[in-house]
Write a structure and sequence with these properties.
The chain is built from 19 helices and 29 strands. It has an 8-stranded mixed beta sheet, with helices on both faces. It has a 5-stranded mixed beta sheet with strand order 7-15-14-13-8. With 755 residues, it is α+β, with helices and mostly antiparallel strands. The longest helix has 28 residues, at 510-537. The structure holds ligand MTE, hypoxanthine and dioxothiomolybdenum(VI) ion.
């Protein structure tokens, strides 16, 4: 990473300090969980009296020790802080232990006596579906005349698909450190994407006002959605123990614990039916999704909603119908993960595109292009939002040229003819990703800017830095909007006492909502200071130019005044040097009952193609080349954005090829460590990786003309899966189901028709 004063450059040198790297107060204790030994059961009795007497044990608490509400669910109250009568997944917290060390806690745990009557665990969503175990009402969308659509079709295909889950594998596991203050208030440092929600849940559990709970966040070592709600857990657990012991308590889940008990990307089982013309034009598409929510609702409803709003991806579907069922199982509660339901929805329609190409015998990219949204007709989504700023035709052409698509396809055909067991394929996947929380009220941000007497500036805002480069971007916004040197701007760690009522840093909205708030605050502050500048320097107040920590009057750039000198004068004249502002995304709404509205402020679009080589004897694959053309608008920082695109692509490639969650019959995750759960490594990066920014979309409403970047590129990874599917097609013929992930085992089985 180039450029001085960028936080991420220091980060890459290993200088970021995560929670567990912070100084430890002398009297600090460590918090541990005593979790359920079964996936489903009735708690008959708990006895920890003997354990309490063990050396180094300061407290053991159960649900009875919670002064307030025994609930830490984000949306629904279906997640107890500590289990009371029943346990609903393996590892669910029953007791918390405050100890001097892990060894002490371990010894104490051996002396805890809990009697549990084991109950039948529901582990598959098909079973849950039959039992109608829905934690909330299923979702439904319908638009156009579905029967007519099918009757107008030349072909109808039906299929099923299993889509696997995904472990977040953030480098920093869940962690929190709670410090009680002498006045009865509490300071919690948390590894969270959602400090305000941590604050609220802690306050409710402790029966204290939120104003007494300060939650602050240093940079966190990745969240990827996993810390949007489930960071509540360590935050509230450490807070309970800290208050009980009147000592600071830190909790850090070890990797195994984190993998065993926290939620993942939702796995889903899908049935679909699609009707299309001889030319491959879709007339009707219907589907049923069973989502495995795990033991509680968590964010599942919003996640399924985003899935529902991305069933179309980039394609106009004149008649669409879908039912999405939330299926409760006795597994950890599945949660937000980069893409937030959209990847599951888009996987299905992209799988369908390839099936259509196979039946209609047309190149799969041409089928996609034929179905693209258009500009003046065929431009309304199934939920009623008009798709503006449609650049797909341009993206398609540019990508075709730069990736040399058809020539390479020809070469691949030749390669496949000459090679018996090695097969190559090239697949393209476009994306249209809606930007905004679909829960409309969350689309708000606030900021506070403080100018100091020496001309330096601090910015406070509500977005969490999790490696996505938000802080560097916010500093860029402040420095360019203010006209102040980058070095003179400091962004302060997020703190609920300074910026209250924040939304999670999620839905890729971090830079938009917080950046806009910073921009507004600066505009207000400058308006006041411009008036003062007109007084002291005789400038016309409409013509004050702020540039690189200096002021001058437009038309006279030679006569410059240092910002420091000016600010000191303003201070002496008793002019406020602070300003705060609030931003709420305009024009968005969504009606949950009708599944209609304009939920998104805008869409992020792009296209990616991937060439793979697959060994049909071993199932091993290599990504030979990937080309991505992505509309990043006027990127605030292309280095960061390119990193987000590459990272999302690789993370997604892991999801669709190698990451497999395996549970045993008792509902215990047996792939709960990096040696059995494989995420992509350095060798899995495409040998030839070309990422290009598309510019030519006039949309400029994102902060300073930029676009949200965090999640949309995750969709590109689907091209790896579909390229492998296409390679298989040239080996064994087309028209087959190809579940996610495409592990080596699945590839070989599919090649030899074992299923
Ligand atoms: N990049 C890194 N390095 N680490 C992360 O945890 N989270 C992703 C994405 N990129 C993540 C990341 C997810 S899920 C989201 S929603 C966005 O970043 C959140 O940040 P933003 O809104 O500032 O883009
Ligand atoms: N994305 C991410 N997180 C969310 C959303 C969303 O659309 N809605 C509620 N939480
Ligand atoms: Mo991202 S899944 O919205 O935290």
């Amino acid at each position: 990473m180039e450029g001085a004063n960028k936080r991420l450059s220091a980060h890459f040198e290993g200088k970021t300090r995560f929670l567990d790297d912070l100084e430890r107060p002398d009297n600090m204790l460590y918090g541990y969980i005593y979790g359920s030994p079964v996936a489903h059961g009735k708690i008959k009795s708990i006895d920890f009296s003997e354990a309490l007497g063990c050396e180094g044990i300061y407290a053991i608490i159960s649900h009875k020790d919670i002064p307030g509400k025994n609930s830490m669910g984000a949306v629904f109250e279906d997640e107890p802080v500590l289990a009371k009568d029943i346990v609903e997944f393996y590892g669910e917290a029953i007791l918390l232990i405050a100890a001097k060390s892990r060894e002490c806690a371990k010894r104490a745990m051996e002396r805890i006596k809990i009697v549990i009557e084991e109950l039948h665990p529901v582990l598959e969503c098909e079973e849950s579906f039959k039992l109608k175990n829905f934690p909330f009402a299923p979702l439904h969308i319908e638009s156009g005349d579905i029967e007519k659509g099918f009757s107008q079709s030349d072909h109808i295909i039906e299929g099923e698909l299993n889509i696997g889950g995904q472990e977040h594998f953030y480098l920093e596991t869940h962690a929190a450190l709670a410090k009680p203050n002498a006045d009865g208030t509490l300071h919690v440092i948390s590894s969270t994407q959602n400090p305000t929600e941590n604050q609220l849940i802690i306050a409710e559990a402790l029966k204290l006002d939120s104003s007494k709970i300060e939650v602050s966040v240093n940079a966190i070592g990745g969240g990827f959605g996993g810390k949007e709600t489930q960071s509540n857990w360590c935050a509230v657990w450490s807070a309970l123990l800290a208050v009980k012991c009147s000592k600071p308590v830190k909790m850090v889940l070890d990797r195994r614990e984190d993998m065993l008990i926290t939620g993942k990307r939702h796995s889903a089982h899908v049935k679909y039916r699609v009707g299309f013309t001889k030319n491959g034009l879709i007339k009707a598409y219907s589907s049923t999704f069973l989502f495995d929510t795990g033991f509680s609702a968590d964010l599942s409803r919003a996640i399924m909603e985003r899935c529902m709003l991305h069933l179309d991806n980039c394609y106009y579907i004149p008649a669409l119908k879908s039912d999405l069922y939330p299926c409760k199982t006795n597994r950890p509660s599945n949660t937000a993960f980069r893409g937030f339901g959209a990847p599951q929805g888009i996987a299905v329609i992209e799988h369908i595109m390839d099936e259509i190409a196979n039946v209609a015998d047309i190149d799969a990219l041409l089928v996609r292009r034929r179905n693209f949204y258009r500009k003046s007709t065929r431009n309304r989504t199934p939920y009623g939002q008009l798709f503006r700023d449609n650049i797909f035709e341009k993206l398609y052409r540019d990508h075709l040229n730069s990736s040399d698509y058809f020539n390479r396809k020809r070469e691949i055909r030749k390669f496949n003819k000459d090679n018996r067991y090695l097969k190559r394929a090239l697949s393209a996947v476009p994306v249209k990703f809606g930007i905004s929380f679909t829960t409309s009220f969350l689309n708000q941000g606030a900021a506070l800017v403080n100018l100091y007497k020496d001309g330096s500036l601090t910015i406070h805002q509500g977005g969490v830095e999790m490696g996505q480069g938000l802080y560097d971007k916010m500093v860029s916004v402040a420095s360019s909007e203010f006209g102040i040197k980058r070095e003179a701007v400091r962004i302060y760690p997020v703190n609920t006492m300074i910026i209250p009522n924040t939304s999670a840093t999620a839905a890729s909205t971090g830079s938009d909502i917080n950046g806009h708030a910073i921009k507004l605050a600066i505009e207000r502050l400058k308006k006041r200071l411009n008036e003062f500048a007109s007084k002291v320097y005789g400038f016309d107040k409409e013509s004050v130019v702020w540039d690189n920590s200096e002021l001058f009057e437009k038309g006279n750039p030679a006569k410059r005044y240092p910002l420091e000198e000016f600010v000191r004068k303003a201070y002496l004249a008793r002019i406020s040097l602070s300003e705060q502002a609030f931003y709420s995304t305009p024009g968005i709404f969504f009606d949950r009952e009708l599944s209609r509205g304009t939920p998104f402020f805008y869409y992020v679009t792009g296209i990616c193609s991937t060439e793979v080589e697959v060994d049909m004897l071993t199932g091993a694959h290599k990504i030979l080349r990937a080309d991505i053309l992505h509309d990043a608008g006027e990127s605030l920082d292309w280095e960061i954005d390119r990193g987000q695109i590459e990272g999302a692509y690789i993370q997604s490639a892991g999801w669709v090829t190698m990451e497999e969650l395996v549970y045993n019959l008792k509902g215990v995750l047996i792939t709960a460590s990096p040696d059995s759960y494989k995420i992509p490594g350095i060798a899995d990066i495409p040998e030839d990786f070309r990422v290009t920014a598309f510019s030519g979309n006039p949309f400029r409403e994102g902060i300073l003309g930029s676009r949200a970047i965090g999640e949309p590129p995750f969709i590109y990874g689907l091209s790896v899966w579909l390229a492998i599917k296409d390679a298989l097609k040239s080996y064994r013929g087309g028209g087959f189901r190809f579940d996610l992930p495409a592990t080596k085992e699945r590839i070989v089985k599919c090649a030899y028709r074992y299923e």
